[in-house]
Predict the 3D structure of the following.
Amino acid sequence: MVGLKGRLAEQVPGLREQGRALGKEHGDVVISKVTVAQAYGGMRGVIGLVCDTSVVEPDCGLIIRGRPIGTLAERLPEEIFYLLLTGELPSAEALASVQEELRQRAQVPSYVWDVLKAMPADSHPMTMFSTAILVMERDSVFRRRYNEGMGKDVYWEAALEDSLEMIAKLPGVAAGIYRMHYGKGDPIPPDPKLDWGANYAYMLGLPDPDGEFRNLMRLYMTLHCDHEGGNVSAFTCHTVASALSNPYYAVSAGLNGLAGPLHGLANQECLKFVVELREKFSGVPTDEDLYKFAWDTLKSGHVIPGYGHAVLRVTDPRFTAFLAFGARVCPNDEVFRIVDRIFALVPDILRQQGKAKDPWPNVDAASGCLLYHFGLTEFDYYTVLFGVSRAMGMCSQLILNRALGSPIVRPKSVSTDWIRGTVSKKAEAA
Ligand code: AMX
């Protein structure tokens, strides 16, 4: 079977059997322990989730189904969606089939525009984006079929149906929000001749004489698609969907997490830093000025945005892919040149300072400058772009979890008194 659904239908029985057998034969094997510090510290490092779509390795970065993201930078986002779900890159025929599925479902319902127009003009673009997804929940196949008594073994099929509908429409919804919110005119309908990422660029309506903005959007959508299962948006989506709330509810919830400054908003902070540098030095600063500015930033207790990572200990390969794109397309752009010079100097400075465990750039250090180069200068909007891409990862994880029959998420919480009591009992016993 060539189509995505057909390929998944072939794989699902084996996946289920594998999960069931591991649980049955090795269910008692301890894979993690939890300390008091972790209970108070965001459960950092606690292993308690299974996510097969991707992993993040300290020395290599994002790996999608065994393939380092750097090796996938030339791939279309639709190929990545297929890969996330099935573990395989699609054949030309399978890719055409996914693209056709998305094309047929791309029309945004008119009620979405009615709702967005009725929102206060100063609503944040992420609020508009999440709301648009939530109102489309009225069309959920998962909800309808669940109410009709759908069997557990086909939950994944209904989740796939909703996910395809949603992912197909997200570029149109997101581009319409951009045009509406920043007074750029009416939403532009999709061009059926274009692929998913290129269509997003087209519907934003920014000038693109040589097609490089389309290439950037394809790259952006590919690089931000997934980041294993424990990050705020993925984990939120997983938790909400585990209650059998349908994909619209779950992805909208995940995006509300992505909207936070500690998660998806970091990219706009990075670009702000670079643009401020350009203003202060009326262009590209000399290395000497930049060196001093970076040290002044650190000495005043601030971080260098775009550098450091909770997991990575090398240059983020997604940063490398964006930097290569910029070097090819806009090497003389001032903002890009500043990003390039920061990369040349800041890792050494952070090493000298000796605090950051990872002195290398993360993905956010370079993505904004490229958007800025193409005239997408509205920082508030950047997290929406991130969200369109990340919806592919959230949906893939959700579909696989329904296929595996994952139960409702319900970790145990304890009170501070319980922790106090446990700590003193251990101290007495020692
Ligand atoms: N500049 C200056 N100091 C930094 C730093 C940076 N870029 N990155 C880390 N440090 C400091 C920390 O503030 C911390 O200082 P403290 O001991 O005084 O509190 C110390 O180094 C140790 O931190 P860490 O263990 O290396 O990092 P972390 O896992 O706690 O945090 C991160 C990771 C990304 C939040 C942090 O590196 C940071 O704040 N970077 C700058 C902001 C940024 O780029 N955010 C985007 C992250 C990418 C993403 O997930 N979207």
Notes: The pocket of amidocarboxymethyldethia coenzyme *A is lined by residues 266, 298, 303-310, 355-358, 362, 364 (CB under 6 Å). The mean pLDDT is 96. The beta strands are 54-57, 61-64, 67-68.
